[in-house]
Write a structure and sequence with these properties.
Layout lengths: L1 H12 L12 H5 L2 E5 L6 E3 L10 E5 L7 H5 L3 E4 L6 E3 L10 E5 L9 H5 L3 E4 L6 E3 L10 E5 L7 H5 L3 E4 L6 E3 L10 E5 L9 H5 L3 E4 L6 E3 L10 E5 L19 H14 L2 E4 L20 E5 L2 H18 L1 E7 L1 E4 L2 E4 L5 E9 L1 H6 L3
């Protein structure tokens, strides 16, 4: 009665109860299997390989072992670990049961890999390497294959670019650069026997300086502005330079002497009035202190063509006097370049910011 009633209801109300037809999916096909009801699979069932189908549909893979690309690339064969007399690589037959390992025959010859070649080495059996063994430089090969690098010094690009030669530090009478022969033993240093003459670098130019031996610099020495050169080469800036120094985390309590002198100079030269020097506040819309909070910025209330003249003049004397930024209208000059200013526009004043040297010593 119940069955006939149920069937009647289904017929009367047009209810259709579908039978889900399993179908093949690419992930399962790539693993060598077929998507089917798990109850119909007497072999290995891979979960998640038929992702668009109900949970009872699994990827049914033949229990017989099959090759996988990762294992093939390592010159091995996927097989039962008990049948492997060579090196067993774990995770190289990822779609198969845990007892299936990638078996690399012991007689399999090491082959070149780019990472090892770049380090000046050769992939070989570690027992056959009497020199330095780099781990992880022959990544697709068996664990007993290492990148064998000669213990005797050999060239490396970083050292060559610095004008040096990788050699035993005891044999170096010049400057020893640490970390410029990275794949070699600790006693191998990059020896710059005849120091390369300092050369121009854009970052130093933008700060108004010249790359030179720090012992020959009577101005401000900026570290990191001649980045491709030896440690004793610094960016030497006459006077205070125009390198940028952000505000700290505390207000200074008042204007700096350099900012006061700059304000008086610009007011006398261009008229207007000084709208702000010291103000313990943050940059609008941020949590960072403004240069005004350290008394290192001056706002000169001038506009139009006079404001543009003051903007250009400030840039022309910036690197000699410690000016690190100039803002007018929607333009900002800093680090040697003028670009669009995305902050609050400055149409009614010229903003001039000083680095810490300029804040103390500004003069013209």
């Amino acid at each position: 009665m119940r069955v006939s009633f149920y069937v009647s209801v289904c017929i009367i109300f047009g209810i259709f109860i579908p039978t889900f037809a399993q179908h093949q999916e690419q992930k399962c096909a790539n693993a060598g299997g077929v998507c089917k009801n798990e109850n119909d699979c007497s072999e290995t069932k891979l979960v998640g390989y038929c992702p668009t189908q109900p949970n009872h549909i699994k990827c049914c893979v033949s229990s017989s072992v099959y090759q996988e690309q990762k294992c093939a690339d390592a010159h091995g064969d996927c097989k039962n670990e008990n049948d492997c007399s060579g090196t067993k690589l774990v995770g190289y037959c990822p779609t198969q049961p845990n007892h299936i390992k990638c078996c690399v025959p012991k007689g399999d010859q090491p082959y070149p890999e780019q990472k090892c070649i770049n380090a000046g080495g050769v992939c070989k059996y570690e027992n056959d390497c009497s020199e330095r063994k780099l781990v992880g430089y022959c990544p697709t090969q068996a664990n007993n294959i290492k990148c064998c690098v000669p213990d005797h010094p050999h060239p490396e690009p970083k050292c060559t670019n610095a004008g040096g030669e990788c050699k035993n530090e005891n044999d170096c009478s010049g400057t020893k650069l640490v970390g410029y022969c990275p794949t070699q033993a600790n006693h191998i240093k990059c020896c710059v026997s005849t120091p390369k003459p300092p050369y121009i670098e854009q970052k130093c130019i933008n700060a108004g300086g010249v790359c030179k031996n720090e012992n020959d610099c009577s101005g401000t020495k900026l570290v990191g502005y001649c980045p491709t050169q030896a440690n004793h080469i610094k960016c030497c800036v006459p006077g205070c330079g125009c390198h940028y120094e952000y505000a700290g985390t505390k207000c200074s309590g008042g204007p700096t002497p350099g900012a006061i002198r700059l304000a008086n100079h610009f007011k006398a030269k261009y008229g207007g009035f000084i709208s702000e020097i010291y103000n313990c506040r943050k940059i609008a819309g941020t949590n960072s202190l403004s240069l005004h909070a350290e008394g290192r910025a001056v706002d000169v209330a001038i506009r139009g063509s006079i404001g543009q003249q003051a903007f250009d003049y400030a840039i022309s004397i910036a690197c000699k006097t410690g000016i690190q930024e100039v803002i007018f209208e929607q333009k900002i000059w800093t680090n040697g370049k003028t670009k669009f200013y995305a902050g609050k526009d400055h149409y009614d004043h010229v903003h001039i910011g000083l680095n810490r040297c300029g804040a103390q010593n500004w003069n013209i």
